Amino acid sequence: MTSRNDALMGLLHRMTQLTSTLSRGQLFERATAAAGVTLDRPLVTILVTLQAADRPLRVGELAARMQLAGPYVTRQLNDLEQRRLVKRVPDPDDQRVRLIALTPSGEGLIGRYLQVIDGWFDQALSEWSGDDQRDLVRLIGRLVDDLTTHLDAIVNEDAFVE
Q: Is residue 40 part of a domain?
C-alpha cells in the first residue's frame, strides 16, 4: 500500500538532484559565454527576474521575488544601472516611487542568455509531449508557490517566538 507520504518521500532527494544538475559543470559560465554575457550570477539573476516579471518592479518586490535583502539588491541594481542594463522609471500609481525596468540593452543581453538556456531545455525535453511539458511547468509552479507560502509561514512563526 502506497500512502501519500510514500509518494513524497523521494521529493527532497529528486529536488537535490535537480539542484546539483543545474549547478554542476559550470553551466552558468557556459551559458553566459555562449550568450556573450560578462556578468556574474547575481546580476544575471536580477535581469532574469525582471524579464520574467514582464513589467517594472519596485526594489522591495524584486528583492521579495528573489528572496534576498533589499539593500543587497539595491547594490546590485546600482551596478546594473551604471552598465545601462536597467533604469529607474516613475511608478504610474505613485510618482514618488521609482520602479526598476530593463533597458533595451538589458533586454537584449538577458534575451541572449535565456535563448541559450531555453535551447538546453528544448533539447532535454524534446521527447516529451507538449502536454507533459505544460504539466511540468504547471506542477513545478504550484510546488514552488505552495512550498514558498508554507515555508514563509514557518519563518514568520519563528520570528514571533524569538
A: yes
